Amino acid sequence: MGEDSSGPLHGVLVADFSRILAGPYATMLLADLGADVVKVEAPGGDDTRTWQPPVRDGVSTYYLGVNRNKRSLVLDLADPDDAVLARRLAARADVLIQNFRPGALRRFGLDHDTVTAANPRLVYASISGFGAAGGADLPGYDLMVQAASGLMSLTGAADGPPYKAGVAVFDVIAGLHAAVGILAALHHRAATGVGQHVEVDLLTSALSGLANHASAHVAAGVVPHRMGNAHPSIVPYEPLPTADGELVVIGGNDGQFRTLCEVLGLPGLPDDPRFRRNRDRTAHRDALRPLLVAALARRTSAEWFRELRAAGVPCSPINTVADGVALAEGLGLDPVVTVGGVPGVRHPIRLSATPARHDLPPPGLDEHGVELRAWLAG
């Protein structure tokens, strides 16, 4: 990125052979933190360049969303000369990240064992869909993992069909896991001088991300099921109808439930034996819900939001994405940054001494190819 670059990862060179979402999301996070990320693309470019609409100035917003602060270099790995340049980049890099099918890079001399034999300090990160053992032949698309992991069995109405989440949630979680693993490996390398192999697969990331649901099964033998917007362990914890729509209302503990009831004009409800403790409310959710709905029907969602927020009761209107961005702006979170005329979501981590940077817009295909080829040829 040049001598003026800054950030806690300044000086870390990342050879990014990944594409689509999980890998590019991980490397954008690293780039925002100061790493010099060289995005290696096939001649046709990252698949997400063609995933449109929507677009901004003819460029896919999917691509724009995860490729800030990188430099683009087109290399055709099937071309012997380009393969040499790719191996030179790997030999100079501190981190290499790739999400090809397991074993696919071996024929280009870019697999972990070959690359680290020449560069033992390299942190080599592999992202796959289902691991390198029994699932090596399965492509790693987020929707497949949502289905395979059990997430879709948890999403949707209790008496309706399974649904996917509205975002590629496990690609994002796997990208986060990859970034954490890379940072851990870099810390280890600082102490030992030796890199290591960081392996992340979407299915294991998904099971980790299922959190309490996965724990319910592995620790208690319970198989979770769809409950619509209800929560298996907390009541209330769902959208409830008001006079003009719905409002997410949460009684995360007994104190919050008592305050909720006071605001709703139901002061005796928390002393009812059916609702006194959370486990009681969970057991008698079908009796409790109509009482809360009847009280909420007296006012609009906006009116209840103001009153419940003032009382410290967790609640929220059900926003659009536009509303969510506007809310973050109104709360002073400054969620949007514009880099080179391209708006994007600000890096989510705030560091007091070494803040994230937002220097380069997402690169055009092979935008930095001339300078990077000259550097690799030297």
Automatic annotation (TrEMBL):
<keyword id="KW-0808">Transferase</keyword>
<dbReference type="GO" id="GO:0016740">
    <property type="term" value="F:transferase activity"/>
</dbReference>
<protein>
    <submittedName>
        <fullName>CoA transferase</fullName>
        <ecNumber>2.8.3.-</ecNumber>
    </submittedName>
</protein>
<dbReference type="InterPro" id="IPR044855">
    <property type="entry name" value="CoA-Trfase_III_dom3_sf"/>
</dbReference>
<dbReference type="Pfam" id="PF02515">
    <property type="entry name" value="CoA_transf_3"/>
</dbReference>
<dbReference type="InterPro" id="IPR050483">
    <property type="entry name" value="CoA-transferase_III_domain"/>
</dbReference>
<dbReference type="InterPro" id="IPR023606">
    <property type="entry name" value="CoA-Trfase_III_dom_1_sf"/>
</dbReference>
<dbReference type="InterPro" id="IPR003673">
    <property type="entry name" value="CoA-Trfase_fam_III"/>
</dbReference>
